[in-house]
């Protein structure tokens, strides 16, 4: 068990708070937008209103219901009892979980990978526990329940969302009177929404509201009552107001739309024009059979490729799926009914998100703080509310900084959302993604089965996504005009061939000048042609230490193939031909299976596979390296090979020399030795701890006799025969390094493993290291006398360090006693006649021991009331200037004379708080002071209640003593009577015996 609030662990807490804030910032910038994106898209809320509501409800959810999830994250997954005695390890693990989860979220966001913050923090927590304590440190049942919820939640949420929309669709949208039916179902929707959310809050039981003590049936009753009152309020007040407001607005909008349509219809007839989308082709239609079919495939603008890459999907104007979508299109009156309900569901969704994801982000932070504050790994204290508030603020900051863009993207850029569909979507938080994504600047088709965060899309969104894209027809066709064209839908080739490319293997020869050994080099490349936009690039595999630029030789783009600026198309590539790209001739030798299949399907004969030629210089060099020569180095002496194998491997030994401790390090990379001295704090030694820098140490120093003086001798290279090797270092033996004999005491685990596995000579057991000789403490310098500038404490602080620091304040005393003050009335012991009759109020501050004197106003005295002496410590006279004694409450009593800088004051009175404080702290005051103050207040008649209470206690005590005395006397009388009866009985028995004897 560690020490609570250990200063050596404060850095972990500080770093943990920073990392947790960054993690909460990222979650706020991404996930919070899920709750209010559809509300903004439906036009119910502005972005500013959505951010404001999200901030309030995210923080409220984190503070009120976030403690349960945080308890699970910090104690429910791990067995914290295994970390008792290793609290620092648990704190570092919690910090690692925060950092790992945050880094992975940032990396995944940069790579556009849809991941979950909950999965990341749970995985990071389990990961560090497996490293620290293995499988025993994880509660696998709790982890299994969490993992099961990841699979069950999408399935159940999809079922609930689809059911809700199906009910709304059948009961409202497809009814004969959808507006009246919507008004009828509106109170039910309000009531159910409020009841479900209130039930979840009451059943969770936030401890801040003391609701954790409520039974489940009371939570159910509260939820039902809240839902019932909400439905009643909506039925009485909201429904009539909504009916009147929507009918008035719809009538005005209908008149405006009719005027606009008539004007536009007239202009179209005069100009004889039709308006159609540019991506929809037009062809003559045959109206005799009523079913128009086009004979020519539409051509995409800007496509100059002469190939059948343009796949056309024809569709009849009277397609059944399109009819279904048109029939289900919502009326404006129905959409407006669900506006406020959508805001309500979004706020409750944000409230739940704050209780869940905020706790996920700061769960390890709470564990880190609990271990730091308690000093124990069990974390028995409750979750701090301020840390939950800190996480909520982090998420809110991320929402305001970056989340506004995500809300705009989700609500306005993805799909058309109305309040009805928005209410259904927000109930279970599933959204319809956009159909086209952007890849390298070009739109591509996206899978609509998954929504934001890779979650399954709900049933209503799937139905909307599987339908054909809505087309804006010519307005004149809506008023009975016979159409002359049929609109056909097609899928462009950049959508059909998204992420599909042709890959060719090729090589080219590059000339090498001014080299007697190499005239040219053969370089192998991959030519990649992208079918989606007719671009290509040339990439060369990267080889380390090649000596020249590799990688992407030609950037992706549409490249001209001749001086006429004609562009390359896919027909220009085949196996066995040469292709000139920017003056470099590439010979294609092979292609991948997809490329071969595609070219064959287009009627092109693909050439036979050829072999890639090898580089002649590389072959010549490899052959030369494989040929043994007399000057070829052994593998063990090759510096490059040793660097690649042994870089970073160091043999470390603990040694002593001249009663000092050293660390001897042997570097396996180049057989060099370094010696570093191990310093202790404040040992007064040279701050540069390196005794010997990294160098090769000659071995023949061992031939010197033991009595030879230890000096440093300069050796030239010809004189050195061999150097120290790992075999020369043995624990328990002495090694001579440049005239200094070091005794090796121990080595680290890697060194022992290296000697056992690699050299086959295990190191002996460690020998104890002698304790350091305690050095005498340096003589203390005398403190110079006070120089009368500033307070004595400030002068003393300037003597302790070169840079003066202000004296430390008693923070605990300030927090405990602020703003308590003892007030006394005083008069000046006048020396001059003009000072007679001056009254003052003396205030003693219990938080810092300062005294402030204020003068009271007196009529016709010629003096105004105000501060006579500002708050400061007042020294007692004749106590010394270097170490003065200051006035304390023990020196302040009625009649006491206080000398304040040669001004004498006499205390004449005090307030009742002074007496209460003295009685509460009677052990700090002498008997005379207490009696002095008591007599004063008794004379003033301010302690009458205390006197009555004390007299009552005395009377009760006397009555108890009297009753006890009466009981004792009665008991004694009873004992005397019993004793007399016993004596009479004994006398009778004695007389009877004497009579029998006679």
UniProtKB/TrEMBL annotation:
Alphabetically ordered keywords of this record: Cell projection, Cytoplasm, Cytoskeleton, Membrane, Phosphate transport, Transmembrane, Transmembrane helix, Transport
Oxidoreductase recorded as keyword: no
Coiled coil region boundaries: none
GO molecular function terms noted in the UniProt entry: phosphate transmembrane transporter activity
Membrane topology: Multi-pass membrane protein
Keyword Secreted: no
Domain DM10: 498-603, 647-759, 818-922
GO biological process per UniProt: phosphate ion transmembrane transport
Main location: cytoplasm
Transmembrane segments: 9-27, 47-69, 90-111, 147-168, 183-203, 215-238, 385-403
GO cellular component: axoneme; membrane
PROSITE patterns: DM10 (PS51336)
Signal sequence interval, chain numbering: none
Domain of life: Eukaryota
Compartments it resides in: Cytoplasm, Cytoskeleton, Cilium axoneme; Membrane
Family: Belongs to the inorganic phosphate transporter (PiT) (TC 2.A.20) family.
Protein's job: Sodium-phosphate symporter.
Protein name, per record: Phosphate transporter
